[in-house]
Write a structure and sequence with these properties.
The chain is of the alpha/beta class. It is built from 24 helices and 40 strands. The chain has a 5-stranded parallel β-sheet. A 5-stranded parallel β-sheet has the order 9-16-10-11-12. It has a 5-stranded antiparallel β-sheet with strand order 22-23-26-25-24, with helices on both faces. Helix 19 runs parallel beside helix 22. The longest helix is centred in the last third of the chain and has 16 residues. The chain is elongated and about 125 Å long. The relative contact order is 0.06. It binds flavin-adenine dinucleotide. Flavin-adenine dinucleotide (FAD) binds next to helix 1, strand 2, helix 2, strand 4 and helix 8.
Length: 817
């Protein structure tokens, strides 16, 4: 007798299982029951049907019952709902939804692939006609019809998972204002918050609004339709899409007494067999093994449903096959970016108590010299002991799909994280790099595992700094100026070797750069010089992505009118110059902006295009600091475009001169040892905290800068007498108090030596190395007859104008007299 196989559900899992069963045996009698009007339709395409990207619903219908009959000899009964099953009699009860008649069918084997349904909590007002969910083609059509007939202006999306965000994009593209409400503090739960922030940042740039941290408590259809949030806030809207997750559609399995987990998912073994050996279950309705954690989870994705369908069919046909679990590889397009993840998130690993390590990087999808490169933010999680890859998350514009798939394959093939460096991946300039981003992750994992690099992460920086760690920003001054970690000092990597003496040896150090690589080089230099140093993984980009959620740059949609704040006399020419900085990583775009601003007049504008992910933030803060006006900021296909108008404040070309808070000017008038030392100590401290410092030595103060063994200089008699009477250089200065004919000063110097306090000469040398500007007063030199060659090397000579210019640009000016 023919084996009779009945299948409940005719979409991803059900249809795949039926087709595979037929390929395995012509002898089976196969009947598929589907309560909806379509089988084998692509529900993954539904958001794009709503948005009009897919123009006709029939394009989503991959197969029809007639086709299935003709091709596979499978009896497909659409609009037939299975109401219950009798495991003892091995029958199911079906209702024909067109005729309303019920009937029974017997089975030898039953396959359940009923999927999962959108969660619709029992909230007040939940049945309002303006609230939609999205699972089927009719659901999509209902939304389309509402858009056409009611012409809603403002949509609320409840839930920021992938369906919610795809709907946000598609409704926005239909011209609606879209607000996403999410109970968690982040979008996309499979991602960790710092990676999810990159997605939120992009959505905000595109004009999507968010409300995080509060769930919806009810819907109010009073005067105006609104969602009411926890705490009572009302958000008026014209329509709602509920996308808060799905729950297994398993009532019939539950009623039949099959084993389910606490959330209603059917428990199956690795053969996809339920607690009844004649019943198999697959797809969104089941709970499956998470092979990374060794426990079970529910993953509602089409790929796993289809693989499970194949395993079930093979086992039913008598093969010894096993499903090897689901690692949850998923990908989503959100406007111009792609976000993908595989394996476990850090949140999951923490919850499971797993001993893991992680690395971050931000790299272009292909070599940056080939046009069109776009950055990707990558996070790799791996076992701290054996290096097994545990998960990865990538957000970028291009090439995300390929990288996540390589890492998913590494998880499946048990290739440890440090061996990712060995993978031979396809490369030509338009596609990748000789060291592919995945290879880079491998290098980083290897360095972390073997101790070559000690990494710290964004969330550890503040705590370590509180305990005394010194944070060294090894980017260029321009990058540092455009944004930095609070309290960090700036030593450009290229100057690091020459400025090592400025770095305290008794404190732990954290190095960082823009994406992590220069920070790593700095770490290696300092480690070899005996410092206790760690590098910030992912650099400043990952840091701001994680920590600065409040100042995410937002799109300035409309170009602002020409500034009316320009003082009279400035020509408002409004010339727009286009600068292409695409493919350049920081500081390239900012540097190009400086250069371009240098060439335009006040009131003129430039537009600069860049692909560096930090550009939107950098340019926003740079404009604020430099007194230039950000006129327009937009992003398209990963290209940021900023229009900037040159401002009038100070020298707007590089903004550094306007960072008044970051400048200190000291006027050293005194020649007393303690006072001059205090001036140098303040100056050195200010430099260490990131300030630019100028010291102006005038009158008696100038003596501190005199050389001990200066060359003979021709002087007038008066000048010679003066020169003899005045202390010649730092070592000859005396205390302002208790000098006691030199005894007090000598004692003080001895105590300082014992306490390892730097002498004034040493302080002056350090100051020169830290680029403290030492300016000798020209007028004093003239009056006292001191020539430049009598002063220490590196001292600039300047007039009052020079001093006043520095004062103008300073937040603080101190007078040491
Ligand atoms: P389904 O494909 O949902 O099929 C179950 C079918 O069973 C349904 O048609 C239902 O009507 C029928 N049924 C249920 N109960 C009965 C009954 N008692 N009698 C008769 N019929 C019954 N996954 C991805 O991997 N990538 C994506 O981009 C993606 N995008 C998605 C977008 C949307 C809008 C949605 C809704 C899902 C998306 N998914 C995506 C998820 C993916 O579609 C599902 O994981 C997959 O379809 C699950 O297959 P399944 O067979 O378990 O369930």
């Amino acid at each position: 007798m023919k084996k009779r196989i009945l299948i409940v559900g005719g979409v991803a899992g059900g249809a795949t299982c039926a087709a595979r069963l037929r390929r395995l045996s012509e002898e089976f009698e196969i009947i598929v029951f589907e309560k909806g009007e379509y089988i084998s339709f692509a529900n993954c395409g539904l958001p794009y049907l709503v948005g009009g990207v897919i123009d006709e619903s029939k394009k989503l219908v991959l197969q029809t019952p007639e086709f299935f009959k003709a091709r596979f000899n499978v009896d497909v009964r659409i609009k037939n709902e299975v109401l219950s099953l009798d495991r003892t009699a091995k029958t199911i009860l079906i209702k024909n939804l067109e005729s309303a008649k019920t009937y029974k069918e017997e089975y030898d084997v039953l396959v359940l692939s009923p999927g999962a349904k959108p969660i619709r909590p029992a909230l007040d007002g939940i049945n309002d006609q303006r609230i939609f969910t999205l699972r089927t083609i009719p659901d999509a059509r209902a939304i389309q019809k509402y858009l056409e007939t009611a012409e809603p202006k403002h949509a609320l999306i409840i839930g920021a998972g992938f369906i919610g965000l795809e709907m946000a994009e598609n409704l926005h593209n239909k011209g609606l204002k879209v607000t996403v409400i999410e109970k968690l503090e982040q979008v996309m739960p499979p991602f960790d918050p710092e990676m999810a922030n990159a997605i939120t940042r992009h959505l905000k740039m595109k004009g999507i609004s968010f409300k995080f941290g509060k769930g919806v408590e009810s819907f109010d259809a009073g005067k105006s339709f609104a969602a009411v949030l926890e705490g009572g806030e009302r958000i008026n809207c014209d329509m709602v899409v509920l996308a808060i997750g799905v729950s297994p559609d398993t009532t019939i399995a539950k009623d039949a007494g099959l084993l389910l987990n606490t959330t209603g998912a059917i428990i199956v073994d690795s053969k996809m067999m339920t607690s009844d050996e004649n019943i198999f279950a697959i797809g969104d309705a089941v709970t499956v093994e998470n092979p990374i954690l060794g426990d079970n989870w529910q993953v509602a994705l089409a790929g796993p449903a289809s693989r499970q369908a194949r395993i079930a069919a093979d086992v039913i046909s008598g093969m010894d096959k096993r499903y090897n679990g689901t690692i949850g590889t998923s990908i989503v397009k959100i406007f111009d970016i792609t976000a993908a993840s595989t394996g476990c998130s850090e949140k999951l690993l923490k919850r499971a108590g797993r001993n893991y390590k992680k690395v971050y990087t931000n790299v272009p999808n292909h070599v940056s010299y080939y046009p069109g490169a776009r950055p990707m933010s990558m996070k790799l999680l791996f076992d701290a002991d054996n290096g097994a890859v545990l998960g990865a998350q990538i957000v970028g514009v291009y090439g995300v799909d390929r990288r996540i798939d390589v890492i998913a394959t590494a998880i499946a093939g048990k290739i440890p994280a440090d061996k990712l460096k060995n993978l031979e991946l396809a490369y030509a300039p338009p596609y990748g790099a000789a060291k592919d981003p995945v290879n880079m992750l491998g290098f980083m994992a290897e360095n972390t595992l073997n101790g070559m690099s000690k990494t710290v992460h964004f969330d550890e920086v503040a705590g370590l700094a509180k305990k005394g760690a010194i944070i060294i920003d090894v980017r260029t001054a321009e990058e540092y100026m455009a944004g930095r970690i609070d309290g960090s000092i700036n030593i450009d990597l290229n100057e690091l070797r020459g400025r090592i003496s400025e770095i305290p040896r008794d404190k732990p150090l954290i190095t960082y750069c823009q994406i992590g690589f220069r920070g790593y080089l700095a770490e290696r230099i300092l480690r070899q010089k005996g410092f206790d140093v760690s590098n910030l993984s992912g650099g400043y980009l990952t840091y701001i992505q994680a920590m600065r959620t409040d100042d995410m740059p937002v799109t300035i949609e409309e170009e602002l009118p020409i500034s009316d704040t320009m003082p009279n006399g400035f020509a408002l020419r409004n010339t727009v110059k286009e600068i292409d900085a695409c493919g350049l990583s920081c500081p390239g775009p900012i540097k190009k902006t400086f250069e371009a601003m240098d060439e335009i007049a006040v009131g003129e504008r430039i537009t600069i295009k860049a692909t560096d992910p930090g550009f939107a933030s950098d340019i926003t803060s740079w404009c604020k600091m430099s007194g230039n006006r950000l006129i327009k900021l937009a992003s398209d296909e990963g290209i940021f475009s900023a229009t900037i108008e040159r401002g009038t404040v100070g020298d707007a070309t590089n903004g550094r001169e306007n960072m008044t808070k970051d400048r200190l000017t000291l006027v050293v008038f005194s020649e007393k040892l303690d006072k001059v030392m205090a001036a140098f100590i303040i100056a050195t401290g200010a430099v260490a905290s990131g300030k630019k410092v100028s010291m102006f030595f005038t009158f008696w103060g100038l003596n501190a800068l005199r050389k001990k063994d200066s060359p003979k200089v021709k002087k007038t008699l008066l000048h010679s007498i003066f020169a003899k009477m005045m202390p010649k250089g730092a070592d000859k200065l005396k205390l302002s108090n208790l000098d006691m004919a030199g005894i007090g000063t000598s004692l003080m110097k001895r105590i300082m030596r014992e306490k390892r306090v730097e002498s004034l000469s040493e302080l002056i040398e350090s100051a020169k190395k830290s680029k403290i500007k030492l300016i000798a007063c020209q007028m004093t030199m003239d009056v006292m007859g001191i020539a430049q060659e009598e002063l220490l090397d590196g001292v600039e000579v300047g007039g009052v104008a020079k001093f006043l210019e520095d004062c103008d640009n300073s937040g603080t000016s101190l007078f040491v007299s």
